[in-house]
Amino acid sequence: MATKSARVDRTWMLWLGLVVVVAIGAFVVSRSPFMRPVDWAVRLPALVGYLAVFAAAVTSAYLRQMVRWFGRPFLTVHHYLAIAGLVLLTLHPLAAALRAQSASLFVPDLSSALEFVRWGGRPAWYLLLAAAVAAVYRSRLGRRWRWLHGLTYVAFWLGTAHAIMLGADVQAPVPRVLAVLLALIMLVVLVMKRREASARRAGKAGPRRVTTS
Prior knowledge:
With about 210 residues, the protein is an all-alpha fold. The chain has helices at about 5-30, 35-60, 65-70, 75-100, 115-120, 120-135, 140, 145-150, 150-165, 175-205.
């Protein structure tokens, strides 16, 4: 088991990672000319929040490794990332609605399948909120909370589509490829978690007896 000093020493890596991500996000956003403060408030929280949700979802597949490395309950790290992502991705539509002077940006576009996906950030926010609520009330929801919490993956993919189709910072080839790569990593992580869960259930059930007539 990791000592208290090791736990403290390695925790700073999380904060350093957060600072690096924010710095990279600020650099990417700052490359656009004539940025107003409200434009910063729209784009920077979206980019950093998107990465925070990705980190929260992906690292959840490595519970034991995270505990072993940081020497602390992984859920604490996971919750910090998830809360930061949800808060930042709430600031994004709030700032966008302020800039557009319209609350319609919180309403999913149901005019067509293409427009629904193009503006996928809208339903993604509600899915993330539902996933967060499911985590808070998991003791009351029983096993169902895991399925509701899994909405995080759907939200991330909708957010990725929204970013690729409309995101000002994801229009260049390299950011687009990176966004697609992150979405594929999320898919791999989801498949791995489902396979591990199936293996655990099979292990608990035990080997079946073979009877002969």
